[in-house]
């Protein structure tokens, strides 16, 4: 059975290491914060200018001056700090953030990522995604393996405008986990009851099979 | 020199002209200069180029200036919350220049700091890099991005003293400090004007030299995504 959104987030949380500074994208990536091991010291950065994001507020705690990069209301922690946008992106672009988890429309076998634009249709903008993929030390993509039409999102080459070139390190989909290596993608884990054949059938990219024993 | 004005409309007097560029602070609807945006609408200034991370929503923030067709061009990183924006853009009425968010922040910071350009990895290999100078440093490729200076900047702070020293509150800071430095003239609106000396001198984010005029205003502080947990 393929992984649910929550299970994909739970799998992505295994990429965290104690002490990491992490930026989570909007959607499934946001759910990763629910699966942080309790004995880990993980600090969430929000690119609109905050280090140390707390959980969503209760009705009484809502503060219009305190939002995350998805414009959702959030809370602060004792250890939180605030800073301006250029200071925030200095952390990101300067290589000070350990890990970013992002959604994607397409990923290619060389690590190319497309997640910001469908020409003529979706014109919203890249926000901070291009800065994150070019500056953060490790990029993990979490997405469904296929789109709503059933077409694969794991390609030899991206067809949509790129967010970054050769930037993705790991891809977690509802079907399994793939690592971006010098010679292409390696399938390293399968979701329960998903077969190698199913992943291969739903993947356009060249795929090496390297499942842990 | 007296910097405090009685109203947003008075504060804008003599500063606006058609075709001008304006940097506007804020992230989404958080920390936007609500009163100065409304006053800009009142001036009727048109063909503006606006440098701002977002463009408000249909009926609030910068969306108000879209309704009145005062904006010719937006320089932004994300405009997904605004149906009228999309309509004007797709019909060719509105020009749009997308900048990666960090590039936009750094362009404003650089412009305000007298730095005409800088190299960054962000956008290399994407359509953002098209037509820009590429240069290799230490085996990696970077693109040249230009600093931004604007005719005017409008920003929102929490508290400001009568000299123009500003303190921002929580994530309402966002692009405001960068915009304040990038404007040839900067107007600040604050929730409270306090006497000189009453702000914590070690917590002034924008020193007075960047601020030429200021007003105190009422703020609706509309919330875009009200998200709560069970309490």
From TrEMBL, chain A:
The keyword Methyltransferase is assigned to this record: no
Q: What is this protein called?
A: 3-oxoacid CoA-transferase subunit B
Q: Which InterPro entries match?
A: 3-oxoacid_CoA-transf_B, CoA_trans_fam_I, NagB/RpiA_transferase-like
Pfam families per UniProt: CoA_trans
Q: Which GO terms describe its molecular function?
A: CoA-transferase activity
**Record family assignment:** Belongs to the 3-oxoacid CoA-transferase subunit B family.
Instruction: State the organism's lineage.
Output: Bacteria, Pseudomonadati, Pseudomonadota, Alphaproteobacteria, Hyphomicrobiales
Sorted keywords for this record are: Transferase
UniProtKB/TrEMBL annotation, chain B:
Q: Which SMART domains match?
A: CoA_trans (SM00882)
Q: Does the keyword Transferase apply?
A: yes
**UniProt KW keywords:** Transferase
The reply on keyword Transmembrane helix is no
The organism's superkingdom is given as: Bacteria
Q: Write one Gene Ontology MF term.
A: succinyl-CoA:3-oxo-acid CoA-transferase activity
**The protein, known as:** 3-oxoacid CoA-transferase subunit A
Q: Which organism is it from?
A: Cohaesibacter gelatinilyticus
């Amino acid at each position: 059975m393929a992984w649910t959104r929550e299970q994909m987030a739970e799998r992505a949380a295994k990429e965290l290491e104690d002490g990491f500074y992490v930026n989570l994208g909007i959607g499934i990536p946001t759910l990763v914060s629910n699966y942080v091991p309790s004995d880990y010291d993980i600090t969430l950065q929000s690119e609109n200018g905050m280090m140390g994001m707390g959980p969503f507020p209760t009705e009484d705690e809502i503060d219009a001056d305190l939002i995350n990069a998805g414009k959702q209301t959030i809370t602060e922690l004792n250890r939180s700090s605030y800073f301006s946008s250029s200071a925030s992106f200095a952390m990101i672009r300067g290589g000070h953030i350990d890990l970013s988890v992002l959604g994607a429309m397409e990923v290619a076998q060389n690590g190319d990522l497309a997640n910001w634009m469908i020409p003529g249709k979706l014109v919203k903008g890249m926000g901070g995604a291009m800065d994150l993929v070019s500056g953060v030390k490790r990029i993990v993509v979490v997405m469904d393996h296929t789109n709503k039409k059933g077409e694969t999102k794991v390609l030899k080459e991206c067809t949509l405008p790129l967010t970054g070139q050769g930037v993705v390190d790991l891809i977690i989909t509802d079907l399994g986990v793939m690592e971006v290596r010098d010679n292409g993608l390696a399938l390293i884990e399968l979701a329960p009851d998903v077969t190698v054949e199913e992943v291969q059938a739903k993947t356009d990219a060249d795929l090496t099979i390297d499942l842990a024993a | 020199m007296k910097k405090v004005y009685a109203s947003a409309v008075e504060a804008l007097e003599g500063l606006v002209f058609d075709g001008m560029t304006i940097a506007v602070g804020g992230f989404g609807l958080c920390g936007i200069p609500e009163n100065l945006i409304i006053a800009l609408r009142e001036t009727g200034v048109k063909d503006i180029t606006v440098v701002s991370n977002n463009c408000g929503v249909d009926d609030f923030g910068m969306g108000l200036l879209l309704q009145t067709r005062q904006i010719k061009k937006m320089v932004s990183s994300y405009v997904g919350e605004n149906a009228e924006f999309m309509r004007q853009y797709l019909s060719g009425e509105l020009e749009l220049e997308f900048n990666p968010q960090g590039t936009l922040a750094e362009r404003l910071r650089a412009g305000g700091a007298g730095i005409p350009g800088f190299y960054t990895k962000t956008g290399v290999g994407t359509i953002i890099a098209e037509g820009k100078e590429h240069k290799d440093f230490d085996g990696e490729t970077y693109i040249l991005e230009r600093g931004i200076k604007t005719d005017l900047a409008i920003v929102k702070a929490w508290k400001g003293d009568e000299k123009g020293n500003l303190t921002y509150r929580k994530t309402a800071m966002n692009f405001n400090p960068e915009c304040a430095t990038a404007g040839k003239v900067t107007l600040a609106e604050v929730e409270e004007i306090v006497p000189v000396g009453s702000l914590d001198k070690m917590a002034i984010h924008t020193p007075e030299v960047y601020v030429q005029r200021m007003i105190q205003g009422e703020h609706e502080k509309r919330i875009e995504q009200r998200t709560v947990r069970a309490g």
